[in-house]
Batch of 3 targets.
Target 1
Amino acid sequence: LRKDAKEEKDHSASRSTKFLEPGNAYAKHWGPKDDPNNGIVYFVQTGYRENTRTLTMTVFTAFLLSFSMIPILRNEKQIGYVVIGGTRLLCDTVGVHITVMSEGPCIDLENHINEYFAYVEETVLNKLDANQFHDKYLKPYIDIHSRKSFDKLRKISGPANLSNEIAPNVQNGDYSVLN
């Protein structure tokens, strides 16, 4: 191995995620200035990945956001032509992300995402009492993760690993091998 390749291999084996202390943020802006397409990966780190409680709450938070993220950011606000989000697992940490591709400036995208989080906090977390929250969000989440619902979901949605079910489409080769 070349020296630099060995160093790169050693570095990749020891990769880890930078843990941000609560309340801290990190932003990096780059890309060609004349490119009309912009994107943002807005990531909220929730804690260490090996912490079961943190991981569970992060997955539930992503579920909670899934009810309104696309309808508000993509359809209503139309901040980008692609809006996706969910749980993001890094080497050592976990969090939720909202990723947007747009023609708008990244700072505007970040502001819209900040407004969206404020909206979720105000309309979901501050306006619902415990019973309403349980009925509207917690019970459906638990139902999805119960065995009975998973079996029902699998029957109507197809196999979990679709690539295992697809036969290859081969155009060249021996007919006897293809059949």
Note: The helical segments are 3-13, 52-66, 69-76, 106-125, 130-145, 147-157, 175-178.
Target 2
Amino acid sequence: DYRQEALYRLGITCLHSGESKKAESYFNQMNKSSKLWRSRAHLGIALINLNAGKYRTASDQLIKSLKLSRTTRGAYLLTLIALQENHIKRAKKWAMRTRTLDEDHPMAESGRAIVLQQLGHGDDALHLLNEIENKHPESCELQLTMARIAFSEKLWDLTILHSEKAVSMCPELLQGYFL
């Protein structure tokens, strides 16, 4: 449906330009459409709440989104929120669920790598991400995850390398990434 796609694009654009209220208005207009678009509307509202630091509300919206359409992105974001809230067990659960949704998606293993790093296995996390990068060199999320883990591990050259790749590939993703 072209109208739903246009509303979604408008919402995402407003979100990236800092107009959260306007973005939410567009996402709310999608609530009377197909399951797929309602799922994306919940995802959009979750992103608004993530940017505002409202993790519980973001989680609730992501779960609503996943009930309508099982997306890798939604499960991956739930992994990041669980880690932000220091719920390692829940993060592991969401990381594994992300993997079952689409094993070949770069975010499927990225969540697992972040959990590994949080458990003190940064080298294993980076090794896993290097394997994924060979299959998905174009993934912005993957570059950001690699930069984030390298930074946490105090690997400055690697942090710079992957941060520069992320900036050159898709600068719009940098907003709100480092939760």
Note: Residues 35-51 form the longest helix (17 residues).
Target 3
Amino acid sequence: AYARALQSSNGRAGDLGQLLEDVQVSDTDWQDRIGLLLRAGHQSADASQKAVAFLRAARIARRYAPHEVEGLLAQAYGADPSSTAAAALYETLLVESERTDRILDEQRRVLESLKEPAARADAAFRFGIRWVLRHQNLDLGAQLLEEALRLDPTRTPAFAFLRDAYGTRSGDWNRVVQL
């Protein structure tokens, strides 16, 4: 149990005690623990802490209530779009069940919920990179990277990718000039 908690802590010893409690829940107290984590997630003002609480609840649910895992991962994903762990777990779940369209739906929902242009640009950039690298969908990734560049013209990595994709590979230099 200690080794599993240590693995989940990502090297942060401060979280180790709580993670050890998560690993040691039993079939009699798992619902109370998930309830505690959900309350903590909903009450937290910090996006990262929200996502971590929902991820911890999902890990417990995976053992005792697998049908609840997707909803918990969706909450973690929506709470902190920059969370690599939430993205990897949620997107993998959807890909494995052949529902990649839900990934884009959720990403669009997250982008619409972000009011600050810098936050939207950051999320669109992250989503675009994920589509290009993880899901191997260059067209969708390019659309999201264009959105990130439109919101924040200083995003040099987005421009460099789009220049390469549209100009160098496709020969559409007019499109590059429009960017």
Note: The chain has a mean pLDDT of 87.
